[in-house]
Amino acid sequence: MSCAVEARGLGFAYPDGRVALTGLDLHVDHGERVAILGPNGAGKTTFVFHLNGLLKGTGALEVAGLEVRKETLRELRSRVGLVFQDPDDQLFMPTVAEDVAFGPLNLALEREEVERRVTEALETVRMSHVRDRAPHQLSMGERRRVAIATVLAMRPKLLVFDEPSANLDPRSRRELIDLLAEVERTMLVVTHDLPFAAELCERAVILSAGRLVADGPCETILADETLLEAHDLELPAGFVPSRVHRRPRPGGTAVPRSQTPIAAQRG
Amino acid sequence: MSFGCNHAIDLTGLAGNTASPIHKLDPRAKVVGIIGITIVGVSTPFTAWPTWLACAAALVTIAIVARVGPGTIWRRSRLILPLILFVAVFLPFVRKGGETVALGPLSLSVVGLQTFAAVSAKATIGVVGAVLLGATTSFPAVLHALESMRVPKLFVLIAAFAYRYLFVIAEEVQRMRAALASRAYAPRNALHAGAIGRVASALFLRTYARGERVYLAMLSRGYSGSMRRLDTLAFDRHDAGFLVALVLLLLPIRIVSAVA
User: Looking at beta carbons, which residues of chain A come within 8 Å of B217?
Assistant: First the structure.
């Protein structure tokens, strides 16, 4: 059966010998929203770069119904929308509209279709008014939204965010949660911002030293202080995971619950 | 994020009445027209005042129609023009031979003075032309024009990235300078300048790392070596009219000055 992510024994070492992933297993179903938590240097970004074939390690990896191989890269990159941590890395064209059009144009779509997708993606992130502006003229929150539009325009099946709330002021962060809650896609959210994860994702996994060390419902994981502490994660003072109001899915669809209670992965 | 003002960078972008007929011209017409004025201006012999006046008249007309004020032109020209004039101002002193004029203890070469005047006139025409192009045409539109005029794609791409990341790098420099200043860095002699060198190398490394990340971001959105474009340019009778008017004004004067 097709699934959003199926990783089995994923391993990766950088050319300088630093081992980033060791035997990582992860299964994500279509429609799930999963938070990937973990301390700095745990291998989160390395894992994210595997999801659209920017890095290739050992082990088996299937993403958005495609086995990650050289031959599938083109299709894979249209199915997986990767939002980088720094919007200045993602927005490289002289104007916002050109940047949003970059992906769809690479998919060799008709001009009218590209135009339609640009308009639609900018509307989704409520940034239509900055269409002809240059990215450097936007605020950080606006840049983040436009960066999201650039991947939405490719209509990916899976959205992957690397630290989406980094460098945002509280209001922009709030608006980003509101925006993402409305997006109907399978999502993987790599973050240190645990309350952010709690509001958006029903499931959380902890990545530590290159492997998955915990996988379960978000509030269960976040309530386990010993577990969090063991992996250098920390909730803000006074934050109670069980009291978080998780955002409903667009259209009021039922939120799929992870069945398994907190599961320690094989070490 | 920005730390204070950044004069050089504030001085880019559109200016004047952005709905003017000049602003609305096809960017190709403006690029060709203004490069044309510059070429006519700089290709003249040393004493081609009628041609330079005609070039100046063309530039002034463009500025008036586009409502780009003298203040804007002055502020933007000031970035580059003094450098050229600074070099040119030595010409009357270093030119040897020919007639000379005494200026106190110094003697000035007449040919040198003429050269200085010519270089100044030519430089002013070129710089003001570039300023007007920048004030009436957005940088992306200029890039688009260059691309559709078959300028090699690699050059256009380099210019596009330079434009995009100039601002990002400028912000990084501002932050690094703020960091130096907050630790009381105030170089008093050349030995203290070492920190600047380290800042420069840190900046280079950061920029290099950013380049890698940008490339990954491009790959992630399906980049496979060619840049495609969404919008197309339309060259209409207004654009043709603009170019014809420039040709009718400048060409006869230029030809007469070449014959004379």
Answer: 82, 84, 89-90, 92
Least confident of A73-77, B123-127, B159-163: B159-163
Helix (H) or strand (E) holding A207: strand A203-208
Nearest-CA distance from A88 to chain B in Å?
Answer: 7
The alpha-carbon radius of gyration of chain B (Å, integer) is 23
B167 and chain A in contact, CB less than 8 A? yes
**Considering only alpha carbons, which residue of chain A is nearest residue B13?**
A134
Residues belonging to chain A with any Cβ–Cβ distance to chain B shorter than 8 Å? 49, 52, 54, 74, 77-78, 80, 82, 84, 86, 88-95, 97-98, 101-103, 105-107, 111, 114-115, 118, 134-136, 140, 150-151, 154
Query: B164 at the A interface (CB within 8 A)?
Result: yes
Domain boundaries, chain A: 5-247
| DSSP-assigned letter for residue A125 | T
Q: Residues B146-173: what's their mean pLDDT? A: 88
Contact A99, A84 (CB under 8 A): no
Q: Is the pLDDT of residue A21 over 90?
A: yes
Which residues in chain B have Cβ-Cβ distances shorter than 8 Å to A74? 222, 224
Question: What pLDDT is attached to residue A266?
Answer: 44
Convert B17-48 to b/e letters by CB count within 10 Å (16 or more is b): eeebebbebbbbbbbbbbebbbbbbbebeeeb
| Overall fold of domain A5-247 | Rossmann fold (3.40.50)
pLDDT in tens, B46-57: 778 889 999 999
Task: Determine the Cα–Cα distance for residues A2 and A38; give it in Å rounded to an integer.
Answer: 27
Tokens of A182: 């409305």
B143, B220, B223, B230: best mutation site toward chain A, by most A Cβ within 10 Å?
Answer: B220
Mean pLDDT of all residues belonging to chain B: 85
> Does the ipTM exceed 0.85?
no
Average pLDDT (B238-260) is 87
Q: For A101-115, B122-136, B169-183, which range has the lowest pLDDT when averaged over its residues?
A: B169-183
CB pairs under 8 A between A and B: 80
How many angstroms separate the first and last alpha carbons of chain B? 57
pLDDT at A191 over 50: yes
pTM score, two decimals? 0.78
* A135: Cβ contacts below 8 Å, ≥ 6 apart: A87, A88, A91, A93, A95, A96, A99, A143, A146, B164
